[in-house]
Amino acid sequence: MPPDRGRGLQMTDPTGAVATHVDRAFVGLERRAEHILAGIRLLALLVLALVFRVVGTVDQGYPTMVPLGGLAAITLITLWLVRLGLFRPWLSWLFATLDVAFLTHCLVVLAHRNGQSLELALNTPVALLVYVFLATAAVRHRPLLILYTGGLFIATWAAIWLWDWRAAGGEAWLPGTWTAALAWLAAVGLTSYALFVAVWRARRTAVTAIAEAHLRENLSRYFSPKVVDEIAQNGGAVRSFRAQKAAILFIDLRGFTSLAERMPADKVAAFLNDYRRRVGEPIARHHGIIDKFIGDGAMAIFGVPEPRGDDARNAVLAGVALVSVINAWRSERLAEGLPPVEVGIGIHYGDVTAGALGDENRLEYTVVGDAVNTAARIERLAADLGTPLLVSADVLAAAPGLQQDLQLAEPVTHLLRGRSQPIRLYQLAVDTTVAGERRA
C-alpha cells in the first residue's frame, strides 16, 4: 500500500461554478419579484393619474394617455410573460428604458401644461418616481440595471436641456437657474450608485457564502472538521507546506483479495463501507484524521492541521482501539458463518511536511516525508510477522508513560525494507491491545 497513492479532492473553481448557480437563482427570484413590481407600478400609475387630474392634464388626451398607457402596458405585459414562463432577463433592460422614457414624457407634458421651464419640472412630485424605478431595479437584484436606469434618466434630461438651450439660442442658460435641478440629478446619481454598491455587495456576499458552504460540504466528505475549517478559511494558503511533527498510522485488511473473489460486486462495496465505518470511528475519537482510503487500507494522521502534545499517544490508542474493533467484527462474522477478517497496523512518529498537494483542478491535503514512508513499511512488516500492531520506539518516546501503561516488553530491532538503518519496534499482542485500550 504505497503512501503516495490516493484519491485527491476535486476543486474545480467552486466560486465560479457557484456564481453561475447564484445568477440562475437570482433570475428565478426576479421572475417571482415581478408580481411585487407589478403592484409598485400600479401605485405609480395611481400617483400619475392623481397628479394629472389635479393639474388638469387629463383633458389633453394624447399627452396624458401615452405615459399612463405605456406604464400600464409594461405592467400587464410583464405579468403575462411571467405567467407563461417567457420572461427573460434582457426584458428588464427594455422595461427600464421604457420607464425612463415614459417618466420623462410625463415631466415634459407637465412642464408645458403649467408653462414652466424644463428644469422646474424636476421639482414636481412626479419626478420622484425615478426613485421607484431605481428601487424596482434593486428588487431585481441587478446592480448594473440600477446604474443604467439612473444614468439613462440623467443623460436623457441632459440631452433635453441641451436641446432646449440650443433652441432658445442660449438664453435659457442663466447662472443659478439650473442649480437646484442639477443638485436633484446629482442626488439621483448618488442614489443609483449607493443602490448599485448595496446590491453588488449583496450578490457577492451570497456567492461567497454559498461557495464556502459548497466547499465545506464537499470537503467534509474527505477531511475532519478541523482540516475543513483550515482549507475553507485559508483557501490557497494551505498549499504552503509547513514542517511539523505528526504520528502516522497505516492499516491494511489482510487477505482481502481472496475474500473479495468470493463475493459479488455489491457485496464487496457493502463490505468495504462497513470496514471503513468501523475504522473511521476509533481514529476520529482519538483526534486523528483519515488522510486517504486506498482500497482495503487507510492512512491516518495525528497532529494536523495543528499538532497536539498527545498526538503520539492518540495514535497508539487509536491503533489499540482498531485492533479491538476488528476483533469484535471478526467474532460477529464467525458467528454468522462468514470468513474472518484480520488487519495489520503500523505506527510511526516523526517529521513530516503538511499541506495541500495538487493544482487548481485537484487538491489533496496530506503529509509527506520519511515518517510517512517508515509507517507504511512498518505496516508491511506487521503483515510479514503476522502481528496486528507494530509501533516504533519513536512513537512511544513521544508518549511518556504509555509503554508502562501497556506493559510492553523491550523493543525488537528490525531492518525495514528499503532502509539502511534498523529501527526498534514494539509488537503489541491482541490481548495486550484490548487491555491497553480499556485502561486508556
**Sequence of secondary-structure elements:** EHHHHHHHHEHHEEHEEHEHHEEH
Percent of residues in β-strands: 5-15%
The tally of beta strands, per DSSP, is 9
Give unreliable regions as ranges.
Answer: 1-15, 432-440
Q: What is the 3D form?
A: elongated
Rg calculated over all Cα atoms = 37 Å
Description:
Strands 1, 2, 3, 4, 5, 6, 7, 8 and 9 form a 9-stranded mixed β-sheet that branches. Helix content is 61%, strand content 15%. The longest helix is centred in the first third of the chain and has 42 residues, at 14-55. The chain has 2 domains: 14-217, no CATH class; 236-439, 2-Layer Sandwich (Alpha-Beta Plaits), CATH 3.30.70. It has 15 helices and 9 strands. The chain has helices spanning 14-55, 62-84, 89-114, 118-121, 129-139, 143-167, 179-219, 225-234, 256-261, 265-285, 311-335, 370-385, 393-397, 402-406, 430-439; strands spanning 9-10, 242-254, 289-294, 297-302, 342-358, 362-368, 389-392, 412-414, 423-428. It is α+β, with helices and mostly antiparallel strands and 440 residues long. A hairpin with a 2-residue loop joins strand 3 and strand 4. The chain is elongated.
